[in-house]
Amino acid sequence: MILVVMMIIALAGNANSADIEEALMFSAGKFVILGAILGALSLGLLIFYIIHAGTNQQISTAMKVVWIALLFFCGVIVEVIYFFMEIVPEHSLTGRLEKNDGNQRVS
Hints:
The protein is mostly helical.
């Protein structure tokens, strides 16, 4: 937005309205292209995380459903949390917590 305002101020002094309109359309076009690229990247990451959560053998079916629902409804914040809890560690943190919780109930 600041870039658009600065372009208007710079062009207003020495250009006609056609030049200003052309500059604004070029700037808006860059934002549309950037938005499309980021949207496609975000959708691709969401699909990757949902597939990973669904095929993760270290967590129970109930936790798979919870992770997929959270990923679908909460988006980027849950993707970051899922990455550090399930993908980065050698063994799934959720799976370890479920295993420890099950051992405490039996004892």
